[in-house]
Amino acid sequence: MNTCRATACLICLGVCGVAAQAQIYAGTTASGAIFLSSSLEDNAPQVIVEALALPEERHEREAVVATSRSIPEGFAPFIHEASVAYQLPVALIHAVISVESNYNPRALSPKGAQGLMQLMPATARRFGVVNSFDPRVNILAGSKYLRWLLDYFEQDLELTVAAYNAGEKAVIQAGRRIPRFSETEKYVPKVLALYKRALQQL
User: Both 69 and 11 in a single domain?
Assistant: First the structure.
C-alpha cells in the first residue's frame, strides 16, 4: 500500500490544482490498478489529501477582491463592511449607490441629498451621521436605512427600494404600494434590474 500511496500522491498533484479543498481517497482495485475517489469507498479506504478550511480572514479578503471587480476601487471594503453589519446583499448596496450617485462621494442633489447613497439631511441625523460626504459613513448609514426599511416592509424589496427614494411615509400613504411619483416609478425598476444583474457578477 505504501507504493500505491506514493504513486497515488503523484497522480493527485494534478487533481489538487482543481480541487485543493476536496477530500481525496485512494486504493487499489482487484486488478491492482490505482483508484482515486472524492468519497470513502471499499476500493479507496485511505485519505491522501485532507480538506483544509480557508481562514476566515482569507474569506473576507477574497470577498472584497471579488466585489472590487465591479465596484470602483476604494469603496469595496466599505460596502462589504455594511453588507456584513446589516445583513444586506452587496449587490443591493451596489445597485442603490449606482443609481443614486454613480459612485460620486461628493454628489449633491437639488433637494439636498448628499454623498454616495444620497442621504437627506433628516435621514443623516436620524442615523447619527455628521458628515454625509465621508464614503464609509455614508455607505454604513445608507445601508442601515435600507436594512430598517426591509424589516419595516417585511422583506418586500420593491417597497423597500421605493421607500428609499420617496420615504416610508409616501409608501404607506400610497397604500403600501409604489407611490405614483414619476421619479420613484422609474427609480424602482432601475435599481431592481441593476440589483439582479449585479447578483450574477458580485
Answer: no
Distance, CA of 103 to CA of 71 (rounded, Å) = 9
DSSP code per residue over 170-195: HHHHTTSS----HHHHHHHHHHHHHH
Counting every residue written for the chain, the total comes to: 202
The confidence score (pLDDT) of residue 66 equals 41
Q: Are residues 166 and 115 in the same domain?
A: yes
- C-alpha 97 chain-centroid distance: 14
Full residue range of the structural domain in which residue 83 is found: 56-199
Is residue 34 classed as helix, strand or coil in its secondary structure? strand
Structural domain count of the chain: 2
Active site amino acids? 100
- Do residues 42 and 65 both lie within one domain? no
Give the model confidence (pLDDT) of 156-168 as tens digits: 999 999 999 999 9
